[in-house]
Amino acid sequence: MKVNSADIVISAVKPDQYPGEALPEFALAGRSNVGKSSFINKMLNRKSLARTSSKPGKTQTLNFFLINEILHFVDVPGYGYAKVSKKEREAWGKMIETYLTSREQLKAVVLIVDLRHPPTQDDIMMYDFLKHYELPCVIIATKADKVPKSKWQKHIKITKETLDLDPTDHLILFSSETGQGKDEAWSVLQSYM
Ligand code: GDP
């Protein structure tokens, strides 16, 4: 898809702040530092629209991006940052759970993992949580430019096995450095619209 416009429309913490339009929506989740902001920026052809934002200590919000006036991306604060307090973690969990379980226009969740390493315990928990709610998932295995091409298949296999990937969920090899996987990611997302 050719992105002509992309803007942040709201940072929300609770449902009455979510945008009212019933546009198809995709949530983007991943552990802190995995490359989620870079993925969003690459998909939207923007340098720094999504910030390496949800840094610990900052307010944890769901950031809604309106794209081409026809869909929303929802940037979910990163998980798995060790120094977050129990209270913050609980608030995060509640906010995410409320959003994921109540948002009717949510078409699929894009879960970003690092192709270089097997998915972490946090990644597995997130994926299990999404599958518990029967949400379609698109796995983005990013930082592919950091793995030699000859090892891609091996790393993909490990990623799929570690997550126990549902055969109906797509896994896409991605690099925010090279743009690899961008067209495939858009066509998979469009298939859910
Ligand atoms: P976030 O915390 O998940 O939003 O992560 P960022 O998008 O800020 O990325 C974390 C770090 O990984 C930054 O230094 C990025 O430049 C780097 N990074 C992200 N994606 C890629 C990628 O595809 N390839 C490479 N080589 N580095 C990446």
TrEMBL record:
Keyword Disulfide bond annotated: no
InterPro entries, sorted: G_ENGB_dom (IPR030393), GTP-bd (IPR006073), GTP-bd_ribosome_bio_YsxC (IPR019987), P-loop_NTPase (IPR027417)
Entry annotated with the keyword Transmembrane helix: no
A GO term from the CC aspect: cytosol
Record's keyword terms, sorted: Cell cycle, Cell division, GTP-binding, Magnesium, Metal-binding, Nucleotide-binding, Septation
Entry's Gene Ontology BP terms: division septum assembly
Record-annotated EngB-type G domain positions: 22-193
Names of required cofactors: Mg(2+)
Molecular-function annotations in GO: GTP binding; metal ion binding
Family annotation (PANTHER family): ENGB-TYPE G DOMAIN-CONTAINING PROTEIN, MSS1/TRME-RELATED GTP-BINDING PROTEIN
Functional note: Necessary for normal cell division and for the maintenance of normal septation.
UniProt record similarity statement: Belongs to the TRAFAC class TrmE-Era-EngA-EngB-Septin-like GTPase superfamily. EngB GTPase family.
Name of protein: Probable GTP-binding protein EngB
Organism: Cytobacillus depressus
